[in-house]
Amino acid sequence: MPRVVSGEIKRTLFRDLFLGRLRVDGSEVYPLISPSELASLEPTFTQLRKAEDLGGVLRLRALDLLKPRNDMSLLLEARLVEQLGGADPSTALSFIAHHALGRKLVASYGTPEIQPTLRDDSVFAFAMTEASPGSDASQVQTYAQPEGDGFRIFGRKHWVTNGLFATHFVVVARTTPSQPGNKPRLTAFLVPSSPEVIREPVRSDVLPASGVAEISFHGALVPKEAILGEYGKGFRAVMSGLSEARLLLSAAITGASIRAYSDTIERLNQRRAFGRPVGNFPSVQERVAVLLSETFALQSLVHLVAGIGDAFGTADPLERGLARLAASRISARVLDATRELHGAAAFSGDVTQSRRWADTRALALLDGSDLALESFVVLEATRELRKGGPQVSLPPLPSPLPEGPKGVVERLWSSRHVSPTEGAPGCRLRSLELLTRELGNQVRHQFTSHGAEFVEHQHAHRRIANAALELAVWLSVLIRVQTEVQRVSTVGAERMIDAANLFTGGAEERVRRQFEHLSRNEDELRDRIARRAYTDGTYPFDIVG
Length: 545
Ligand SMILES: Cc1cc2nc3c(=O)[nH]c(=O)nc-3n(C[C@H](O)[C@H](O)[C@H](O)COP(=O)(O)OP(=O)(O)OC[C@H]3O[C@@H](n4cnc5c(N)ncnc54)[C@H](O)[C@@H]3O)c2cc1C
Description:
Helix content is 52%, strand content 10%. It is built from 16 helices and ten strands.
């Protein structure tokens, strides 16, 4: 079953948004999992529902999910992790750390000598973060001291998922001693468990079964063959692992959101107040409708990114970064609403909505904070532009959609039985086109007005990234609905069209708000308030006269 039929989806679908280009013509096909493929995972899903008392690595072992999954497509893997995230976010986190930041890095960057560590019973952990800010890898203190033909590793790592169970650690270390101001050349090593590797559990309120630990390395000896990738260029390997992890984290967060939605519907169906089901109150119905449409929209992006990865065989860090950022933003809204709809029950019981909210927020930190990811996405999307320097001539903005029934886009869409002026029903094609052009304009304006300083302009990164992620989700919804309409007709796709309609209306408002922020420019005001806040140190307004 082809993932994206005949490659009509352009590889640069999401990258083009930043240039103001909407490259869709109605021929794109949304990736679907075939029933036979899904059946291959059914035994795992059945077992997953049973092994509820286990979590993290122990649950992965019980489900036989520690082994390599070489024959699994990205889309199927995303589906698997979505289910893990719904059942238990700790297990999803352990899976991601073990596979994306462990197994995959060793398989892709490890020397032939260390490939045997990929045996089925190995458990991998990824150790980069230290007591210093995790967002700033240049502050890594862990030191790989050259000795003979190898290295001795000294240092202490924090927040190592699977740390309590790991047989092997991917460790990011400097290979020159730390000196004030010097930027380390980082190298990644595979370090096996040994008496020189000491683990201590991290006391945390979230993701309790994921075996998060502090790991101290007291001179663990590794040969030079333990280096992953090139000496002094460990960041390349690390970034590729984080990019892998980002798609899976998005899938796990989507799964947690779907589960929160289902639990909420179950509860609202049972609960009665003032003589009628709570779910019948209009303000509850409003929230339920938004919950469903937002969750559907997020899943649409995550599966599309996985399908594009399968179809083109390569991972685009921008697509994955956008998916992870969208997962964080949308799940925050969804899980906040599901907590509210549960009333006090959100805070009592075994697995509460409140706990699911906290677990999901924590999942969205494994690969770095959202704030850092916003800048990453924008700098990645403008990499080619920035190479040309501030004077670079930007590609011309595309002309607006041709009006009337004769336009190319309209013709294509109408030949595919969807509305010629709106594209797939419920998806507001024209608004998407106009807002995409506006995003291109905004990127162009920010880039030309800040020049080389653009890389430092986090205020602009934030607005651009948040507008772009909404447009990326919107575009995915459009392609999914368009495919569904062709598969089962407009009548058959009615529920999906309704969900799309609600999501795209909300997305339009959110995107416009980001653009307003960019043009109103209250950044100086915010900077001033924040600077004074640090000087004050405490809350500055008192009512004592
Ligand atoms: C559940 C969980 C599992 C984890 N598992 C692992 C693991 O297996 N291996 C591992 O190595 N690490 C792991 N981590 C650590 C994670 O990678 C870090 O928490 C993350 O990189 C952020 O670092 P920090 O917590 O030190 O925050 P800090 O770097 O101290 O950041 C604090 C705040 O400052 C902001 N900030 C910092 N720098 C910038 C900047 N340049 N621009 C804008 N804002 C900025 C951040 O956005 C954030 O809001 C895990 C974390 C969690 C919560």
